[in-house]
Write a structure and sequence with these properties.
The structure holds two protein chains of two kinds. Helix content of chain A is 78%, strand content 0%. By secondary structure, chain A is mainly alpha-helical. Chain A has one domain. Chain B has twelve helices and 14 strands. In chain B, the strands form three sheets. In chain B, strands 6-7-8-3-9-10 form a six-stranded mixed beta sheet, with helices on both faces. A four-stranded antiparallel beta sheet of chain B has the order 2-1-4-5, covered by helices on one side. In chain B, strand 7, helix 7 and strand 8 form a beta-alpha-beta unit. In chain B, helix 4 packs parallel to helix 6 and helix 5 crosses helix 6. The chains are: A mainly alpha, B alpha/beta. At the A-B interface, helix 1, helix 4 and helix 5 of A face helix 3 and helix 4 of B.
Chain lengths: 252, 337
């Protein structure tokens, strides 16, 4: 794994060169928090401090959408024939997949860093331990999401299928999670489904780290376990699929 | 090896050379399509081995398997003693490939591409090497342009620049001068030769006969996934019956009667109908035979479009061993650089 930093470097550079997409997502997060969040939090009266809850959820959601971007890049690379180049250079498949997943996590954090910093300032969180825990939670989640997107991009050989699955996942993963509303207010079937959703645990762990009211949150220990399982599973799957599917030449 | 070395000397020299690439029964099947069919081939250390064949002959699939990008269906190969199936990472450490179609991601610049490639391949001073290579390839002015802004020739030069910066033990170059102007071709040929002279083994896949002839120490003719013949360009040309070739192109399809009459001329060794109106005659002492052939064709009222007397080329070799013509495209003038 000695060349993993080079894979990360390449992916970070690629993010910096796709500014328009990133700016659009930034706008989305700012508008959601600054306009929609303010309005909706006035309507929601059954829960104290819903605005903060909502803003934290939007931050995690946006990070999810940046992390998932790695899968789209892999599709672009396949179209350009660039995958063959990546497979020909002296990098192990592990370095390639883990490096790209780590890069997905790092760039999500970098991308959202100004918004996270501004948000923490506004809610008055300055404790380095809490800040550190929150960032680790976000990084762990986006590391796993990047692994998931790599697994899907490589596993699904059709670009159309990938688009459909990602669109569906994007729609359901947010709605069937506690990103925007706590589990206690969900209809029972949705609350049950949300317990199998890593976004639920990432959002709640982030809130817990920033000292949000624990009565609305999942158990932090469970959240840590789920996130570790999530990131491990999909990164291992990504490596296996890269080795078995791509190296076999079946993507061609 | 120097071009002036006698053939017998080269042959003896090769007996003591070590095969750095050994391909044994290599086979690749895509569904029902057999791309590479139990290919056996060896490349010696410090040689340029031209792999000549038309599109679809299995050249690129073979090179992709050697580079561990795709897995063989059957058989295997060794690069520097490492099996491509068992030790793909070790193989990738020894091998570098310049693809037929440049593999450049659109948001990268030539500087970023070569610098990153150098770092991944573990070369010393990648920045310095990148600067030198960009200048050598006349890409310095374009170093900060995105890949999608580069012309086809520039992209190809960046692609070739990857192996030039890497200086791998085994370099694979797949049609390195396609889309490149004549001056650029000579420059890239010189760079490939210098790589060989420094100790690299070059596997040169091409369907350009002139390129294979000028660059290769040995040429392997691959056709329908199989090796047809492997030898030096000189030996391959000498293997053509007769030693001289006359190409006759006619206005109308050539009749069987014409073929029969020409075949009867003493000194004609072999005939091949390349196309219905293109006859290739293999013979001895073509300059003396030409008037008799012309006379025979006139007697048979054949409308001659052109007649061309020449020494055998790799095109003739290819035709001799496969029965098909390898069309030569974008061939620069015959002056040796």
């Amino acid at each position: 794994m000695k060349k993993i930093h080079l894979v990360i470097e390449r992916d970070l550079r690629s993010m910096m060169q796709q500014k328009s997409i990133l700016v659009m997502r930034w706008f989305f997060a700012i508008v959601q928090i600054g306009i929609f969040g303010l309005a909706i939090s006035r309507i929601v009266t059954v829960m104290q401090n819903y605005y903060t809850y909502y803003a934290m959820g939007v931050i995690v959601m946006t990070m999810y959408s940046v992390a998932i971007f790695t899968g789209y890049e892999i599709y672009d690379e396949n179209d350009d024939g660039y995958t063959e180049y990546l497979l020909s250079i002296p990098l192990t498949r592990k370095e390639l997949v883990i490096g790209r997943s780590l890069a997905g996590g790092i760039r999500s954090l970098l991308f959202m860093a100004p918004i996270i910093a501004g948000f923490m300032y506004l809610i008055g969180i300055a404790d380095p331990l809490r800040v550190g825990m929150a960032l680790v939670a976000l990084f762990g989640f986006t590391f796993g999401v990047s692994g998931l997107s790599i697994t899907l991009a490589v596993g699904l050989r059709s670009g159309d299928k990938f688009d459909i699955i990602m669109g569906a996942l994007d729609a359901f993963i947010v709605r069937l999670s506690s990103a925007l509303y706590p589990q206690t207010f969900m209809p029972k079937p949705i609350a049950i489904l949300s317990q199998f959703n890593p976004l639920t645990y990432a959002s709640d762990l982030f809130r817990w780290s920033l000292n949000f009211n624990t009565q609305y949150l999942a158990n932090p220990t469970t959240a840590v376990i789920v996130l570790v399982l999530f990131l491990t599973t999909f990164n291992v799957c990504g490596v296996l699929i890269y080795e078995r599917s791509l190296e076999g030449g079946t993507w061609r | 090896m120097p071009e002036y070395a006698p053939e017998s000397f080269l042959r003896i020299g090769r007996m003591f050379q070590v095969a750095i690439v050994k391909i044994v029964g290599l086979t690749k099947r895509y569904g029902q399509n057999l791309a590479v069919d139990h290919l056996n081939l060896e490349a010696q250390e410090k040689e340029i081995l031209g792999i000549l064949g038309p599109n679809g002959a299995g050249k690129s699939s073979t090179l992709l398997m050697l580079s561990t990008i795709i897995k063989p269906t059957e058989g295997t190969a060794e690069v520097g003693g490492y099996d491509i199936r068992a030790n793909p990472y070790k193989v990738r450490e020894m091998i570098g490939i310049a693809f037929q179609e440049p593999k450049l991601f659109w948001f990268n610049t030539p500087w970023q591409i070569l610098n990153w490639h150098g770092k991944v391949c573990g070369i010393r001073n990648p920045r310095q090497a990148t600067e030198r290579m960009l200048k050598e390839l006349n890409l310095w002015e374009a170093r900060n342009k995105y890949a999608h802004e580069l012309s086809g020739g520039m992209k190809k030069r960046v692609e070739v620049g990857k192996i030039m910066i890497q200086r791998p033990k085994v370099a694979i170059v797949d049609e390195p001068t396609a889309q490149i102007d004549v001056a650029g071709k000579y420059q890239i040929w010189d760079m490939i030769r210098s790589l060989r002279d420094e100790g690299s083994t070059i596997l040169l896949a091409t369907n350009e006969l002139g390129e294979a002839d000028r660059l290769s120490d040995r040429v392997a003719i691959v056709y329908r996934g199989r090796l047809r013949v492997l030898d030096t360009p000189r030996n391959l040309k000498d293997s053509i019956p007769g030693g001289d070739v006359i190409d006759v192109r006619t206005e109308n399809p050539i009749r069987d009667e014409t073929l029969h009459q020409v075949k009867q001329i003493s000194g004609v060794v072999e005939l091949s109908l390349v196309k219905p109106s293109h006859l290739r005659i293999y013979l001895n002492r073509a300059e003396k035979m030409l008037p008799r052939i012309m006379s025979c064709l006139n007697d048979l009222a054949v409308d001659i479009a052109s007649i061309n007397m020449k020494e055998p080329t790799l095109d003739d070799v290819f035709f001799h061993y496969t029965g098909e013509v390898l069309e030569e495209a974008d061939e620069p003038d015959s002056a040796t650089p």
